[in-house]
Write a structure and sequence with these properties.
single chain; about 150 residues; alpha+beta; 7-stranded antiparallel β-sheet; about 45% strand
């Protein structure tokens, strides 16, 4: 059975809070290697209410943010607490982001991410987002761990 984290456990790893906490669960965790973030997107999610009122859709930049949060939770969960305690993870670059299908509310967005490499405090990841096994988006990105000021 693979390890998983609920939202309360994720909150102990990430500084994000509602409405900017974009993952509800972390499943299929392979330490420092890969995981799947789950976002249960509803029509009541604050960022879709105004994007767009007549036809709500999750903004692509927030899909990328959800990728980043999934990766940050995976990394924080896998390293020593002292390494991430009182630190923040900042996005450094986003590459090859593609948005293939709109993510419409009342769905379960699965963010499958994989660590490509790490060098010191810099990590590189890739991810794919799915709804009902249909690919919605994919991207590669880099992030770094920095001291909280």
């Amino acid at each position: 059975m693979s390890e998983k984290l609920n939202k309360d456990q994720i909150k102990k790893l990430l500084p994000h809070r509602e409405p900017m906490l974009l993952i509800d669960e972390l499943i299929n965790i392979k330490k420092l290697s890969s995981a799947t973030g789950i976002l249960n997107l509803t029509k009541d999610s604050p960022f879709v209410q105004g994007h767009f009122p007549d036809q709500p859709v999750m903004p692509g930049v927030l899909i990328v943010e959800a990728f980043g949060q999934t990766a940050a939770a995976l990394t924080a969960h896998g390293i020593d607490k002292e390494t991430y305690e009182n630190k923040l993870v900042y996005l450094m670059s986003v590459e090859k982001a593609r948005f293939r299908n709109p993510v419409i509310p009342n769905c379960k967005l699965e963010l499958k991410i994989e660590s490509i490499r790490s060098h010191g405090r810099v990590w590189k990841y890739k991810g794919e987002a799915f709804v009902d096994s249909k690919k919605m988006a994919d991207a590669q990105w880099s992030a770094t761990i920095v001291e909280r000021k």
